[in-house]
Design brief:
This protein is mainly α. The protein is built from seven helices and three strands; from the N terminus they run H-H-E-H-E-H-H-E-H-H. It has a three-stranded parallel sheet with strand order 1-2-3. Strand 1, helix 3 and strand 2 form a beta-alpha-beta unit.
Amino acid sequence: LFSTYLCKQLKSVFYVANVLAQDENTLKNGVVLIESHRHCEPQHYNFQLLKQAVSLLSYCLPMQIKVTHSLRPIDGMPEWQTHIAKKLEYLAGRVSRFRVVPHCCTLDDFIIAAEDVYGISRENLPEEIGGEATLDSWREWLAIRADLEDMGEVE
């Protein structure tokens, strides 16, 4: 069951990569990732899966990851989380490691910085962090692709 779920998740990543690879602007300028370490507990991390995901994102996509904005707890990360973050940055390689921008601030401050400093508009930020982008169109697109590929339901 777990490997089936992982397979579906990996297929979704490649569907997104396929769409992004068809956009000349994305191929030229790269993509921006936003990750959140907020509200995470040690049991949420599976290092083997994280290692595979980092490898996939760093070396297997047809476009470059320009920067990763890492939303971290305001009061800093606990020691176990810092340890995992350092391991992941090492796995990502020298170039990708220097493209991680940590943000230890409120979500409102991050949104202001995203718009003013990094040029990321609020409509392109996910609603989970205070932006306006929803997952509805994403889920609809994935459902169509899942039916076409006979993958079944994708979360």
